[in-house]
Task: inverse folding
């Protein structure tokens, strides 16, 4: 059984650029959630996808967008990067929206 | 929305000591999970425990849903237990399916 994998692990971008982060869900899981974790804080919910549809969204601006593919993998896209977008981005997968969530190793994004 | 508070925020232990971490939440929950975040940032699942008691080796957890708290016990701590422990809940009311995290307890175990 393959766990949740994220790519890339580290990324450096310039303010104003766009970035795409990728997540492969655990085998058998159909729900993917994305979280942003700033240094010294707990993860904050960005959005969730269930069976390719957005199922909920946290308090993040529209320049944060996502997709879920038929194989339940997912992408997080961030446009017009700002310095405050520098954070660890975590992806979690689960079977359904109210079950145990499993996290990937994260993508550490630095915006300079 | 639901609030999650963890205590203590920081904890320093000598190797071999026992500890109890607490998580209080402000409303009914459908899901409660404990995680250990390793130095590389990955959240490792410790327990999925919306209610009741579970044990896994030196770790155990208890959730009393009616009183809105959960406890994580670490016995005979080891240096490898160091890191940040997070409690996260899924609210039973008005939830979008997302976990709400506390601010974490930073544990340092000294040899």
Result:
């Amino acid at each position: 059984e393959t766990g949740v994998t994220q790519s890339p692990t580290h990324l450096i971008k310039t303010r104003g650029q766009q970035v795409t982060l990728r997540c492969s869900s655990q085998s058998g899981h159909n729900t993917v959630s994305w979280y942003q974790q700033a240094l010294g804080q707990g993860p904050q919910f960005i959005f969730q996808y269930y069976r390719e549809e957005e199922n909920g969204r946290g308090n993040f601006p529209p320049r944060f967008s996502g997709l879920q593919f038929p194989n339940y993998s997912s992408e997080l896209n961030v446009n017009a990067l700002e310095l405050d977008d520098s954070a660890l981005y975590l992806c979690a997968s689960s079977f359904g929206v109210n079950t145990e969530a499993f996290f990937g190793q994260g993508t550490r994004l630095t915006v300079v | 929305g639901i609030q999650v508070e963890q205590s203590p925020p920081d904890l320093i232990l000598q190797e071999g000591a026992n500890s109890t971490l607490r998580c209080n939440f402000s409303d009914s929950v459908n899901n409660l999970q404990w995680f250990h975040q390793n130095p590389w940032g990955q959240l490792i699942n410790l327990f999925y425990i919306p209610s009741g008691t579970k044990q896994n080796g030196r770790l155990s957890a208890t959730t009393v849903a009616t009183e809105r708290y959960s406890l994580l016990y670490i016995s005979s701590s080891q240096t490898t237990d160091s890191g940040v422990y997070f409690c996260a809940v899924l609210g039973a009311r008005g939830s979008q399916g997302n976990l709400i995290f506390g601010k974490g307890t930073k544990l340092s175990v000294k040899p």
Chain A has a mean pLDDT of 95.
